Amino acid sequence: MKLLVTGGAGFIGSNFVHHMIKFHPEDTVVNYDLLTYAGNLENLKDVEDHPNYHFIHGDIRNRELLEYIIDQYQIDMVVNFAAESHVDRSIIEPDLFIKSNVIGTQNLLDVSKSKHVRKYLQISTDEVYGTLGSDGYFKETTPLAPNSPYSASKASADLIVRAYYETYGMNVNITRCSNNYGPYHFPEKLIPLMITNALEGKELPVYGDGQNVRDWLYVEDHCAAIDLVLQKGKPGEVYNIGGHNEKRNIDIVELIVDTLGKSRDLIKHVSDRLGHDRRYAIDPTKIETELGWKSQYMFETGIKKTIQWYLDHKNWWYKIKSGEYMDYYKKQYGSK
Ligand code: NAD
Ligand code: TDX
């Protein structure tokens, strides 16, 4: 396989590149990434010298460069992780999300179609389904009802991917996963923000009452699922991927604080996120029964591994938590 991985310098993309090099070292992996604030080549230090790994600095909106790269490396599969991914930033600056996530996806799909790639896989999110009450699960047949500019941009991209299957018969798949966590997670998202702030003795900002529920998926489990969909996914199908690990935000924050031996006084309830979805929960029956995938990590195991990773990689996140990151942080949380 000769695989183009877009957004491979971000959190999930870099974990996926590691997964591919470990389990399919004979395959070519071309990582194509714009290196926005969220893209970080340090995530790929241990694979950068591998003979079948290549990095290209580029934008998924750049048609000419994509065409050139697909020809040069004889790419036959594309997996699109590239996106603006943070809900809070989408509330501050929605237009960027439309440009990268919608226009970018359409451009990448169109180039993939014109170059006759064998498979196009779009990495989407459970957020496209909107929010759940206290019971029920998102299935692949749940209607799309996105509530944030971010999730609306991802849902729009999904619909374009669907249209390329229906109209042009392109071999596409869409995966919709729940909240990932694990190594290389950018410290603006809940889990790495709380771990690193607690280690720095900073306040831990919990939005609203902290009762919102997310369904957590260890990133290695997600990568294994993506690998399987690339190999065995049926044309045009959507697969939901979830870890059966529903947790309330406040319980996660307390668990992190307690594990690190810090004081719960650091926890501060702050204004709620606008349009804050109450609960996400995935029903992964389809990928489990049709493709034979199953998550391996219970949350309690995954979170311990993750906390240890942040303890062992302080330099990685110290460097990030400066510069542009602090500008954003002050806008979002004030100066504490
Ligand atoms: P991330 O923000 O950590 O990484 C995104 C990467 O995409 C970065 O390396 C960035 O430089 C790159 N990028 C952004 N715009 C680009 C463009 N126009 N052209 C080329 N590269 C560009 O995101 P992540 O958390 O790793 O998420 C990856 C994908 O998975 C996204 O599509 C996201 O919507 C989806 N997703 C993430 C989660 C999660 O919990 N993190 C859950 C469900 C779905
Ligand atoms: O400071 C915070 N305080 C807080 O209470 C932050 C950053 C978050 N939260 C809450 C909001 C959410 O209920 O924690 C929960 C998780 O927030 P995020 O880590 O921002 O994730 P979420 O909004 O759920 O979206 C994530 O999962 C789905 C990814 O960022 C998306 O890219 C993915 O599609």
From TrEMBL:
<dbReference type="InterPro" id="IPR016040">
    <property type="entry name" value="NAD(P)-bd_dom"/>
</dbReference>
<comment type="similarity">
    <text>Belongs to the NAD(P)-dependent epimerase/dehydratase family. dTDP-glucose dehydratase subfamily.</text>
</comment>
<dbReference type="GO" id="GO:0009225">
    <property type="term" value="P:nucleotide-sugar metabolic process"/>
</dbReference>
<keyword id="KW-0456">Lyase</keyword>
<dbReference type="InterPro" id="IPR005888">
    <property type="entry name" value="dTDP_Gluc_deHydtase"/>
</dbReference>
<keyword id="KW-0520">NAD</keyword>
<protein>
    <recommendedName>
        <fullName>dTDP-glucose 4,6-dehydratase</fullName>
        <ecNumber>4.2.1.46</ecNumber>
    </recommendedName>
</protein>
<dbReference type="GO" id="GO:0008460">
    <property type="term" value="F:dTDP-glucose 4,6-dehydratase activity"/>
</dbReference>
<dbReference type="InterPro" id="IPR036291">
    <property type="entry name" value="NAD(P)-bd_dom_sf"/>
</dbReference>
<dbReference type="Pfam" id="PF16363">
    <property type="entry name" value="GDP_Man_Dehyd"/>
</dbReference>
<feature type="domain" description="NAD(P)-binding">
    <location>
        <begin position="4"/>
        <end position="306"/>
    </location>
</feature>
